[in-house]
């Protein structure tokens, strides 16, 4: 140790003082070196321990647990199920059908489970043959222009890429679609075709439900032939058990902490009090209504423009996207249901799934009150489906009423006709049915179990985020009509929005919302011409498009021709955004504005008539300018008529036959040059 200090010492110094100084220095050096070595050893010791512990992390095993749980095969084995019904659902109907099919299974000595494909690994389909008498059923809705629903997107992607051998899989598909749309039941057809390509065995033919007709009847007709086919395939027989089976049990909370009770939240408890991004369907943002003005000058209808403040939400949107809003049912309807059933609506309760293995613990967020459930969670305004009538029939004390309910829920032709006329065409909702059947008084908890979920309503955004980054604009018309029974039915969302008056501090002007991305997009190059066709509230996304084109022009970009074909009933009654459109035209952004007033003259004039009138210009923009076409509004008539008009224009000026013209327009759609944002 001394040798280490020696080089720093002067060899000529040898006095007692210098000797003492040397002793003192050695002592200090010793302390320093010992401390250093101790420190290094301690560091090494702990570092070494860390290194040793790294491979032995007990928590690593818990990370793998959800992967095991995502196997529907293991779950089916564990719970003794042999039929799995997957659903691709956007509005809840496909999920409802899947639940009904899974409940049916017990009548044939089988056990079923409904499953959300988003929650499971669908590559496990190849293992389903490990389970005796196994079957996979797919209730697949088609969304938008032939797209899968949000929860079936991963399944769709997997099907496209999969090279799995599904030769041991037995399957059946029921598709939910709407014939007014171009790609009717595209998702159901694709799943059915693709599963067969991968070697799976079809047990029963593809069912195609049409929401433009009678979706419920289509489903019942398919279902009544589906089960006999399943019985024949597996060699089983119906057990004859037609009894009602409850899926949930009621628990009434007499002594509950109200901070643990849901008051309308869609997902996380207290999420409306403590808002946290990102915002989506399960975590909507509470947006303040900053403007709510009537757009039309006259007429019976109420057309409105609303502005939702999304400041500090981190919500981003593009022109053409949709805003989804969660409405609330009319309190007077809720109160009437409570009165008829003699229920204290403020009772706090939970409906707990009797199947403890189910991923769905409750039909809606629980615990909550009956009032909250009927206001925010349940659909009480649409005519109930036949399964609801079937389950409710047992509670009718009058034999005639009970028979009537059972008949409407049956698959007999007479029963279907009665359901169609008495429920669907008469637009009888659950309240009207209870009013018109005095002996029908079901327990409110069973009614809450049976009613479908109240769904979000989608609106095409009527603004551009380039111009309005902190607000989203909505254009809507209130729905109100008299039914065949003389009742006044009101649209849930539009009448609820109508009453959302801008308010400085109250909650009365708050709207739970989120943004859903769409494919309805302006061309990448601003110089590309656009032809927009949007009568009525179909003009909404084009207000956003024109705002964006104006902004691009202000930025010095070259902006191509911007052409709008708009239509309304009367010029001085319901000409929406008249001043804004006139200003855009004056500024030179809106290069052509063609307006059809359908009822201002003896003969009705619609947007397609104006397209024909300007057919030469349309063809020039389409053929030479490579214009993009956008159609927004009614799918049943307008969108179809407009498309037929384009066939005519293309055929005439492109010197094509009708089939060639149809093919030309279809190719425009494939290339993203003919886009639709339509509803029926």
Automatic annotation (TrEMBL):
Q: Which domain of life is it from?
A: Eukaryota
Start and end residues of each Flavodoxin-like domain: 83-227
Which GO CC terms are listed, alphabetically?
cytosol
Which UniProt keywords are present, listed alphabetically? Endoplasmic reticulum, FAD, Flavoprotein, FMN, Membrane, NADP, Oxidoreductase, Transmembrane, Transmembrane helix
Needs which cofactor?
FAD; FMN
Q: GO biological process annotations for this chain's record?
A: response to hormone
Q: Where are the transmembrane segments?
A: 25-46
Pfam families under this entry? FAD_binding_1 (PF00667), Flavodoxin_1 (PF00258), NAD_binding_1 (PF00175)
List the InterPro entries: CysJ-like_FAD-binding, FAD-bd_FR_type, Flavdoxin-like, Flavodoxin/NO_synth, Flavoprot_Pyr_Nucl_cyt_Rdtase, Flavoprotein-like_sf, FNR_nucleotide-bd, NADPH_Cyt_P450_Rdtase_alpha
Instruction: Spell out the SUPFAM superfamilies in the cross-references.
Output: Ferredoxin reductase-like, C-terminal NADP-linked domain, Flavoproteins, Riboflavin synthase domain-like
Q: Does the keyword Iron apply?
A: no
| EC number from the UniProt entry | 1.6.2.4
Keyword Cell membrane on entry: no
Name the record gives this protein = NADPH--hemoprotein reductase
Organism, as annotated: Melanocharis versteri (Fan-tailed berrypecker)
């Amino acid at each position: 140790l001394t040798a280490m200090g020696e080089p720093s010492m002067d060899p000529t110094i040898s006095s007692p003082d210098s000797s003492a100084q040397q002793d003192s220095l050695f002592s200090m050096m010793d302390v320093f070196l010992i401390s250093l070595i101790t420190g290094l050893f301690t560091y090494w010791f702990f570092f070494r321990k860390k290194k040793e512990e790294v491979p032995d992390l007990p928590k690593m095993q818990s990370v793998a647990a959800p992967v095991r749980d995502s196997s529907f095969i293991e779950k089916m084995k564990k719970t003794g199920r042999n039929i799995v019904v997957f659903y691709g659902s956007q509005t809840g109907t496909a999920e409802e059908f899947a639940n009904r099919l899974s409940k049916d299974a017990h009548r044939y000595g089988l056990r079923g489970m409904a499953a959300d494909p988003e929650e499971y690994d669908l590559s496990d389909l190849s293992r389903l043959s490990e389970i005796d008498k196994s079957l996979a059923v797919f209730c697949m809705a088609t969304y938008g222009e032939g797209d899968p629903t949000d929860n079936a997107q991963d399944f769709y992607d997997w099907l496209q890429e999969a090279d799995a051998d599904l030769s041991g899989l037995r399957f059946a598909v029921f598709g939910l679609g709407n014939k007014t749309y171009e790609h009717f039941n595209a998702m159901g057809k694709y799943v059915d075709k693709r599963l067969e390509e991968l070697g799976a065995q079809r047990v029963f033919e593809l069912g195609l439900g049409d929401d433009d007709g009678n979706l419920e009847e289509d489903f019942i007709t398919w279902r009544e032939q589906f089960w006999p086919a399943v019985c024949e395939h597996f060699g089983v027989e119906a057990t004859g058990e037609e009894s009602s089976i409850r899926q949930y049990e009621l628990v009434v909370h007499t002594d509950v902490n109200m901070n643990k009770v849901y008051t309308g939240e869609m997902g996380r408890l207290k999420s409306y009090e403590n808002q946290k991004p990102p915002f989506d369907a399960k975590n909507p943002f509470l947006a303040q209504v900053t403007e709510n003005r009537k757009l039309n000058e006259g007429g019976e209808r109420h057309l409105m423009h609303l502005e939702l403040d999304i400041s500090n939400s981190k919500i981003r949107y593009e022109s053409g996207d949709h805003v989804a809003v969660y409405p609330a049912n009319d309190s007077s309807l809720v109160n009437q249901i409570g009165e008829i059933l003699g229920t204290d609506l403020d009772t706090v309760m939970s409906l707990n799934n009797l199947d403890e293995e189910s991923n769905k613990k409750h039909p809606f967020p629980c615990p909550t009150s009956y009032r909250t459930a009927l206001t925010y969670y349940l659909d009480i305004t649409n005519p109930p489906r036949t399964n609801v009538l079937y389950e409710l029939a047992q509670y009718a004390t009058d034999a005639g009423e009970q028979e009537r309910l059972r008949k409407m829920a049956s698959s007999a032709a007479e029963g279907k006709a009665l359901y169609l006329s008495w429920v669907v065409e008469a637009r009888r909702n659950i309240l009207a049915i209870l009013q018109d059947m005095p002996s029908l008084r079901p327990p409110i908890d069973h009614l809450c179990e049976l009613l479908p979920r109240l769904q979000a309503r989608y609106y095409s955004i009527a603004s551009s985020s380039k111009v309005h980054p902190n607000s989203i604009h909505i254009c809507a018309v209130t729905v109100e009509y008299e039914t065949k029974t003389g009742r006044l039915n009101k649209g849930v969302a539009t009448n609820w929005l109508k009453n959302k008056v801008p308010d400085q501090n109250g909650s009365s002007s708050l709207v739970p919302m989120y943004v859903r991305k769409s494919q309805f997009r302006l061309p990448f190059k601003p110089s590309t011409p656009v032809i927009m066709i949007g009568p009525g509230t179909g003009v909404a996304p084009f207000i956003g498009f024109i705002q964006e084109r104006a902004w691009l022009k202000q930025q010095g970009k070259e902006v191509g021709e911007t052409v709008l074909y708009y239509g309304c009933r009367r010029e001085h009654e319901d000409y929406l955004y008249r001043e804004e459109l006139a200003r855009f035209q004056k500024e030179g952004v809106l290069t052509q504005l063609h307006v059809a007033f359908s009822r201002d003259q003896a003969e009705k004039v619609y947007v397609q008539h104006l397209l024909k009138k300007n057919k030469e210009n349309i063809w020039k923009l389409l053929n030479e300018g490579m214009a993009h076409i956008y159609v927004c509004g009614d799918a049943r008539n307008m969108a179809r008529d407009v498309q037929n008009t384009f066939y005519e224009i293309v055929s005439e000026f492109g010197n094509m036959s009708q089939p060639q013209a149809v093919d030309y327009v279809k190719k425009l759609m494939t290339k993203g040059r003919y886009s639709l944002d339509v509803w029926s």
